[in-house]
Amino acid sequence: MKILIIEDQAELIKNKLDAINLLEFDSKLEFIYAPTSQEAGKVHSFIKYAVIIIDIDLSVNSKKDGIGIITDISNYNKDFLKKVIVLTGSSLVKDSLDNKGFNDIPVLKKPMDMTEVSSAIQQIINNN
Amino acid sequence: MTSTFLTELIFKRITSLLFRLLVIGYAVFLLIVQHNFFDSWVYFILAIAYFIIHINLVVREYSILRMLNDYLFIFIILFYKDMGMFYNVLFLLFPIMNSPNHTQNNRRPFVLINIAAIVFILLNYTNNIDTNVNYQIYTVISLYIISLITFFEYYRNSYRLKLESIYTAIDKVTIRADRTSQLPKVYEKIQNTIKDKLNLEIVQITAFRQVRKKTIVKSSSQFVHTHNIDNVIKEINKTSVLLNASISLNNKENSTNICIKIENDIFVLLTKDKILEANIKQYITTHEVIIPILKRVANIIQLENSLDIQRNKVNSSLNKKYHYVNNIMEAIHYLSNEMSPIKGYFDLKKKYDNLDNDNLKKPLFLLLQKEETLAITCLDNVVNRTLNVLDKGLNPFTTKELKKTKYKQIFMLMQKIWINRLNETNTNFIVKNFDDNIDKVCYTDMNTLEFMFTDVYENVRKYSMNFKKVEFDFKNQLTIIVTNDIKDFKDKVQSLRTIVKNFNNDNKLEISRSSSFGLTHLKERASILNIKTTIDINEDEKYFIIKMKFMDKQNENTNN
Known about the structure:
The complex is a heterodimer. Chain A has a single domain (2-127), classed as Rossmann fold (3-Layer(aba) Sandwich). Helices cover 37% and strands 18% of the residues of chain A. Chain A contains five helices and five strands; from the N terminus they run βαβαβαβαβα. Chain A has helices at 14-24, 37-40, 66-76, 93-99, 114-127; strands spanning 2-6, 30-34, 51-55, 84-88, 107-109. In chain A, strands 2-1-3-4-5 form a five-stranded parallel beta sheet, sandwiched between helices. The radius of gyration of chain A is 13 Å and the shape is globular. Chain B has four domains: 3-165, no CATH class; 183-298, no CATH class; 329-394; 403-557, Heat Shock Protein 90 (2-Layer Sandwich). Chain B has helices at residues 3-33, 40-60, 63-78, 86-98, 109-127, 133-174, 183-198, 230-239, 280-354, 358-386, 407-421, 446-463, 489-504, 508-513, 520-528; strands at residues 202-211, 214-220, 227-228, 241-243, 247-249, 252-254, 257-262, 265-271, 403-406, 428-432, 440-444, 468-473, 479-485, 531-538, 543-550, 556-557. In chain B, strand 1 and strand 2 form a beta hairpin. Chain B is of the alpha+beta class. The interface between A and B is medium-sized, with 16 and 22 residues.
């Protein structure tokens, strides 16, 4: 089961995600890391991922930030939004997403809580 | 109609009335001391008629008819009297002597002199006393010499009024609160007013200044991207005023201009037509109107320069603060990221410790080790890269240096915050022992003090109802006591007691824990400035009292 992680500082969360995979998902998850929106690939390719974890504040090399990527996903296929999780250090992101009509996307705070992330991934997998 | 204009008009009316009464009084004198042609009752009716006609003409503002009325009255009084007598001729000169009291628009010096001359000649003929032509010519010439002086005075006054109207136009522009330079608008007003009042068309005004041997444009009514006024710079020091110099602005040659040097600025006024050097009117316009106006413009340039320097200083200070706040934001963001592996390490360790499955323990231990290495690196990063923002030397908000400051400056700062800036006028300011300690100084920082006093004011403003009092005692060490009443005192008295206790115990932590009535920063800033700050409550009066005593041991009297 492939999970796309769009995050420019992947090394800071990699061990924890691996631990979640080991402990909660029997190492069945395969994490694909993309530090920029370009490296995440075209939106239509997102169909192959079970879960998409997006950091909102990406590096300056990224053509789009997390909100831009979510907007692209929404424009392409609104159903894809059901497998999106937002990971952010900013407390204002939730309001920003709500204002743009993305109220149902789970927003998780950084530094990431393993239990919280694990539950969110589990819930998306169960629902889809 | 402005109040100044109205006052002037009232004074002119009163002067005018007094003058007519004087004319009538002098006429009575002339009638008493000489033989008269008419019966007394004729003169009596004449005087009444003269006065009534004058009042009517004043109401209708017929100035020329008023003048004719005066001379008709004078003519009848002097009819058949000896014009060789000084006191009779003096009567004839009364209206001329009164002419400075005429309003500028009603001044007609030549008309006045002509009427006086005609009346004089008529009186001479009708009185048949002395018909010597030479005598009359001399007298009329004398009258015209007087009129020449009046003429110059008239023109000088008319220029003064035009100048005043231009000053008023400039003032109207400069008093507007605007962040941009007012000079282009000032130039536009000058151009329009000079065109209207003096019929001189100025198409552009540009001010230059030499800075380190380079000529720069200080301000201009129109944008100037290139210029060459080298010819002007060579010559202007010799004469101050140059006409029709050969210059180039925006790559366009020009030789119809007036160049004037005023202090450090060289003003170049491009005129529509060539200025003729021999033209006396243009000479007067340049020297009596344009130069005084440009002197005022030079002052505005100087003022705007000073404001620019101040603005740059403020911007530079704001910029430092902006960068500092940005650094803090970045540091906090960085800190949040670096916390992730540290938190992750403890999360993993907890999971590892609680894990029963031995098969999973080994791979998890490897992950735990990796996270541990990452966490240690992140901790180093936090210490080396983030915690330097706590260095007070980098903080532009901290007090860097204490400067010698007069007690009265501190008083003025407090008063400025209280009265001017925050529009507070209900506060009772009391100053004690001021006269004997007028030059006393202490070492403090006015910026930090301003923050501190603003906090005190805000505290008073938020929590008081009506009563506010600020006492300054200049004796010994400067002491400021701020007293105010408190809204809902009964409800708050318990928390106030706690605050007083904590505040006076020098325990910052306790202050910040409780509802501090805005006093959290006061204590810290006071401590930096070595001001002993205590608070108290007067439960009988329901007053809250803040006492600030400047503990600086270097207090002294300055000789400055």
